[in-house]
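User
Take a look at the entry that follows and flag anything odd:
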Amino acid sequence: MQVSLKEIKKFFPKKVFLRLEPVYHFSLAFLAAVFYGFPSRRLKVIGVTGTKGKTSTVELIHAILEEGGFKTASLSSLRFKVGDKEEKNTTKMTMPGRFFIQNFLHEAVKAGCTHVVLEVTSQGIKQFRHRFIRFDTAVMTNLAPEHLESHGGLERYLRAKLDLFWRLKPEATEIVNRDDVLAARFLAATRAKKGLYGKGGIEINGKLFPVKEVEITQKGIGFEVGDMEFHSSMLGEFNFYNILAAVSVGLREHISLEKIKEGIKKISGISGRLEFIQKEPFAVVVDYAHTPDSLRSVYGFLRDLNPKSYSLDPRLICVLGAAGGGRDKWKRPEMGRIAVEFCSEIILTNEDPYDEDPIAIINDIFAGIPKEHQAKAKSYTDRREAIYESLKLAEVGDAVVITGKGAENCIMGSGGEKIPWDDREVAREELKKQK
């Protein structure tokens, strides 16, 4: 029986425990790999890391690999999929425990999969959940501040991400977003083969594929790679980059551009990521955005759908909160400042408080709103009430934007309580009440 970290913590002074914690995590990673026979050695494992876009990129890569004829498994914050079998990820962990991950890889081998795509987080890396997994390819989507308090600053957060690349074998491949400001750090991190993607093109397997005729509209994304035209109904520049990352992996696996194109077509959108609950008479959008950078991207995209919205007419009505449990307190006032920049109406609410006071979290966000704009901000600790009130405010042409949880299926309360929840379903229910 596995002994939990909380149980171990009870028996040691804090300083001793902090020294023992890495040993605990490393030992579990090793034991899990031994128990399941190091299954990654019989698979091509593709790890996707970064601050934003990991889940979407995993889904796109999975679709491309299947279209290319490879039996594929994938693990992300959204779902666990092995061949034709899949289940939702209800763990509230993108990278579950080490025994879970090694068992997942073991099941992929048993099912005859040749490829596995894993979403790799900085928290998972910090707890050695990536260790004793042989990665054939590592993908970097982008990097922005997140989990700073947990890691102890931006540099340590970056180094956690880099750890995935430091451990690549020379025969493996790293695929890096060349347009990210920290791309050079990732390129210098490993002797593995290099792959690059960005607006200037894709460079993979020693060949350059020009990217041109890029068009990103409210209807989707269009561009050319080489002489092949690509079209996707996914939305936003951030998804353009996610698609390019997935195309790069497809080319790395020697899948034809025609097959890659068909794989991309199969993904019309990702649950809880810029998901439109309705478009008329006003839009209702649910998105997972929970960092300042992702919040700015989502708000900016929705504002730019209509040139008139630069004057905030039609308006963005924004429902947002922040996670508790001591997670990234620094970002709370910053999210308030971003909301002021884009939103006509701001509704602050409960998200995942864990053991923190939801009102205190809301007040932290409110503190970032300049005094002259505080009148347009309201707060409701009841998330359902917040959504209801936001819908009441909406008029023809407006957009209600509900961020922070996406497709998650619960709210995390005190003592580890999981309260069943789905922003999308609640929005639909509250819309029906108002008709």
In short: The chain has two domains: 5-265, 275-433. DSSP finds 15 helices and 21 strands in the chain. The mean pLDDT is 92.
